[in-house]
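Q: Entry one of two.
A:
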Amino acid sequence: GKITPKHLGDWSNGDLGHRSTRVLKGMTAYYRYSGDPAAIAHLTYMGDYLLDYCLTAADHPWPLFPISVPVKGKPYGRADPAGMIQLDICASMGEGLLLAYQLTKNERWFDAAKHWGDLFAERCNRNPGAAPWPRYANPASAPWKDDPRANLQTGGVTMVLAFLDELIRLGYSGKDQQVLT
């Protein structure tokens, strides 16, 4: 017979943000429990993949920020910034990267997470009664962009706060102390 590859479609790599979080957090916990050095390999490929292939460009409105749901462009290649950038998932990716950094001391990962924290702090809506962040950094890329509720960040705010709390715990307060305020 002949093997015919199936077209992967836009959603084939759409779980990248969730998957990376599970690899980073899971392998960190696994290493601490078992001491199995294979966990370091998994942390390394995932952390480096995120920074090498899954960030927006430097001139993007959210520069060098994770594209958490890469549903546009070539699946499993460089993520297209027209894919969805769901902020709660991005924060969870950052938290996973911080946990992996603590184990490996890979400063590149820590620097990236600090930058992401600065972006969250800079773009936080501090008006009383308002949601601190929207759901998406690029709401026009979501298929449900016309639904007025689609860009409302609700319980996902806790994921952003967990990420920022971890940055603070590691001694980073942000540019001009913005992560703290």
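Q: Entry two of two.
A:
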Amino acid sequence: MNRVLLTGGSGRLGRYVHTALVAQGFDVRNFDKVGCGSDVDQIQADILDRESLQSAMADRDMVIHLAALDAAVSATEQAFFEINVQGTWNVLEAAEKTNVQRVVLCSSVAALGIGDDILPDYLPIDETHPCRPRQAYGLSKQVAETVGQCFARRGHLEVVCLRPAFIVFPDLVIATAQTLARQDGIEWSCDLPQHSNALNEPLTATRSFIAPADAADGFVAAVRAELSASWRLYFAVAPWSMSPLPTLERAQAMGIPASAVQDPDRYRADPNASMFSTTQAERDLGWHARSTFEFLLAEALKGHNA
């Protein structure tokens, strides 16, 4: 049961997931509009092409569905909804028709709608927290999750959904650190370059993040895990904030009342602990992130100065 169809495998996260799957011995087929090398088993097609999807899954055991419009892409609200929701429906429909065992969906913490003006009900945030998105991207992810639950209830598919936080790709690390310095008054222990690529999206209000390699490992874990239910939802978030500012100070700056902190001991033990809980992913998938933001920054600076 190691034959995986990976949609969006040519994308930024997709390349990490493809590499992680191959390293773990999976037989991977890439499904993407863009090719990723002549030595890769791949089908170049769109996730809105239902016939191509069904053909691509004919001999697959599992599907990891990454193909979507990302929040950082400049697109219309209609495009976010059509591609992210209809594309997810198409993938699940094709998987059901071809007797795929499990589909792993890529959602986002954006489905919650949490921001500087929409505060979490409590900390740490877990998978039972209500979703209140106001933007098309977050709404598209919330609706895609509901589509996944629908197919799981039919009884023919296992559906696992991961919600990554802001994925800090190598080309974004230095710009993210510079933005943190400006917005949070962070004084880093290392000297940052004067110029770097601009950060084209706002920082997450919760300062949550995940390294791309850690996110990729999460998707591999979701394929491997033995699960007791047909629907599972997990946060794929680093257990630390990307800001060295103590998390409860950041929460106070956001306007989150102290009474909303349900586990204050967590933040006493680790002042930099994430606003999100990954307890369920650690328990069920045996997965946890390894890379701190400081580690990613050190690696980025090595590459910048090389």
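A: Comment on entry two: The two ends are 43 Å apart (CA to CA). The chain has a mean pLDDT of 94.
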